[in-house]
Design goal:
Elements lengths: L4 E5 L5 H9 L3 E5 L3 H8 L10 H7 L4 H6 L3 E5 L10 E4 L14 H11 L7 E4 L7 H14 L8 E4 L18 E3 L4 H12 L6 E3 L3 H31 L4 H8 L21 H11 L5 H11 L1 H15 L8 E5 L15 H10 L3 E5 L5 H8 L14 E6 L15 E9 L11 E2 L1
Parallel strand pairs: 1-2, 1-4, 2-3, 4-5, 5-6, 7-8, 9-10, 9-11, 11-12, 12-13
Helix pairs in contact: 5-6, 8-10, 8-11, 12-13
């Protein structure tokens, strides 16, 4: 089998860290349709914060000619023609859901067309995007065949190796997470596994088929979603009993086999999305996935629930709800991470607005322009910009900065503090999930 000349299609949270690691051992061309993103990366600036400037500088090459001559290095481009010299394509584009929570494979289709236009005999295409079982062979491969004019498993080959990136996690980085691999033939599977194994310190697991690898990925996050839904439901029940859920979980966690999940908002590009891919495929086959969808409904209800409970407590304190001022701390989907994709903190904001509440959002991690584009919110990005006194504060995201903030600086005489993720000590808030 020939030496891999690798092309990474999509340079987001998944593609860029992978490209950087592969570039330490191979020729790598990183492709993204976002020209601004390419320019930023060429200047060693990763706005996702998944790679450092030093890491980018260490592998970046200054020209396309340089990467084709060298045995290692990373060339960043938005020019499809510069991918033609590659023979090992890795697709790492997002797989979102639409407004009706149906899988949207548009990015995957377009990426497949891009690769199909430059595909050559004996090339290999590996997909990392999360999909339902069968998507690679049933949805993507026909596009590659149609556009390229080549025949699958005769002229070109494919594989699937699901991404396991955890945004913002500096401990479990791409090389330190065991990688599942697969190929369209046993020989190709072994080759793909060897390529990944050459950079993945944690090792690899070669699945027996592409469908098995796809299914393994989609159930990872579905399982987490269901477990979080369980503790979220517990938080609603224990709230009615005037019992602190976190204290219950701490006590139950003393048993060796108790699973350490905590209540909270469930968003992001994986846990809040992937279950819908499995559910959609199940329904196409005539099966209604009751537990999976019940977990999704429960978790999606938590943002409005937090707002409703906050309003109830404000009323009990005699605060007039119409034109009350509430500060929401955090808009990213998780703590200490700039990723705002599918953040459910927005549900808190939108629900409060329905009560006539004036809502300000402060998040030192999120980008003002990105939040404005995604959610239409004028974000406060520095605590120095927080001027008014608030009737209520909701800590929606457990950023490290919020653990040190003095909320008394921003509170009116009558106020409510709802600490969603138990960021502060119990005596520093009025309630938490």
């Amino acid at each position: 089998m020939k030496n891999p000349k690798i092309a990474i299609i999509g340079l987001g949270y998944v593609g860029l860290p992978l490209a950087v690691e592969f570039a330490k051992k191979y020729q790598v061309i990183g492709f993204d349709i976002n020209k601004k993103r390419i320019l930023e990366l060429r200047n060693a600036n990763d706005t996702t914060l998944e790679t450092s400037s030093d890491e980018l500088k260490s592998v970046n090459v200054s020209s396309f000619e340089e990467v084709t001559k060298n045995s290692t290095g990373l060339w960043l481009t938005d020019n499809v023609d510069e991918l033609k010299e590659s023979n090992f394509y890795i697709v790492t584009v997002p797989t979102p859901v639409d407004k009706s929570n149906r899988p949207d494979l548009t990015p995957l289709y377009k990426a497949s067309e891009t690769v199909g236009n430059i595909l050559k005999k004996d090339d290999i295409v590996v997909y990392e995007s999360t999909v339902f079982p069968g998507a690679t062979e049933d949805e993507c491969i026909p596009i590659l065949e149609r556009v390229s004019g080549l025949t699958f498993n005769k002229d070109f080959f494919a594989g699937y190796s699901p991404e396991r990136i955890n945004p913002g996690d500096k401990k479990h980085t791409v090389t330190k997470i065991l990688k599942v691999t697969s190929g369209s033939t046993p020989e190709i599977g072994k080759y793909i596994d060897d390529v990944y194994k050459s950079i993945i310190v944690a090792g690899t697991h070669l699945a027996p088929s592409i469908k098995v690898a796809e299914a393994a990925k989609v159930i990872e996050n579905s399982q987490r979603d269901i477990n979080i839904a369980f503790v979220n439901e517990l938080s609603k029940i224990f709230r009615l009993m005037n019992i602190d859920t976190n204290e219950v979980l701490e006590a139950a966690g003393t048993k060796w086999n108790f699973l350490p999940f905590r209540p909270g908002l469930v968003g992001g590009h994986c846990i809040g999305v992937d279950p819908y891919y499995l559910a959609q495929k199940a329904m196409e086959l005539g099966y209604n996935p009751e537990i999976i969808l019940a977990g999704r409904r429960l978790n999606d209800s938590m943002g409005p629930f937090v707002s409703q409970e906050t309003v109830k407590m404000m009323i009990q304190k005699g605060i007039t709800i119409k034109n009350a001022n509430v500060l929401v701390l955090g808009i990213t989907f998780k703590e200490d991470c700039p990723d705002i994709r599918n953040s459910r903190a927005i549900d808190i904001v939108e629900e409060l607005v329905t009560y006539g509440v004036n809502v300000d959002v402060f998040d030192p991690w999120a980008t003002v322009s990105a939040v404005k584009h995604e959610y239409g919110i004028d974000l406060i990005s520095s605590k120095n910009e927080i001027k008014k006194k608030y009737d209520g504060v909701i800590i929606a995201v457990s950023h490290k900065e919020f653990k040190e903030i003095d909320l008394n600086d921003y509170l009116a005489d009558a106020n409510v503090i709802f600490d969603v993720k138990a960021t502060l000590p119990k005596d520093k808030s009025h309630t938490r999930l």
